[in-house]
Design a protein that fits this description.
This protein is α+β, with helices and mostly antiparallel strands. It has a single domain (2-97), classed as Alpha-Beta Plaits. The protein has helices spanning 15-22, 60-67, 70-77; strands at 2-11, 34-42, 48-57, 88-97. Strands 2-3-1-4 form a four-stranded antiparallel beta sheet. Strand 2 (34-42) and strand 3 (48-57) form a beta hairpin. The longest helix is centred in the N-terminal third of the chain and has 8 residues, at 15-22. It starts with a strand and ends in an 8-residue tail after the last strand. The mean pLDDT is 92.
């Protein structure tokens, strides 16, 4: 599995808006190779919340197929790439390969 993670620092007070936004169906759910999206929040800072948005792909090749698609390029060309996220302070991107996963017995 291949995972793309965005780590985003966001001003306090955006949690309800972002929870609603990330709870809605979205385009990637219909793309071959998409597995899931996971949105986590860390609220321990008094100044901002940190969101970790991970998109899981069946393989790096599946992600590259989406990233190289005309649809994906068009979304970014018109400035609609990742949608509107209010209160963003900073953002970074991380990539991972799944090494091991264990489930409850």
């Amino acid at each position: 599995m291949y995972i793309i993670t965005r780590v985003i620092k966001v001003e306090k007070g955006q949690k309800a808006v972002l929870q609603e936004k990330f709870s809605q169906p979205f385009r990637l759910q219909t793309i071959d190779g998409f597995v899931k999206r996971e949105v986590l929040i860390d609220e321990k800072s008094l100044e901002y919340d940190t969101y970790r948005i991970s998109v899981y792909w069946a393989s790096r090749e599946a992600f590259y197929a989406w990233e190289g698609s005309e649809e994906h390029k068009a979304l970014h060309k018109h400035g609609k790439g990742h949608g509107d996220m209010p209160g963003v302070i900073e953002s970074s991107k991380e990539t991972y390969f799944e090494l091991a996963t264990l489930f409850a017995k």
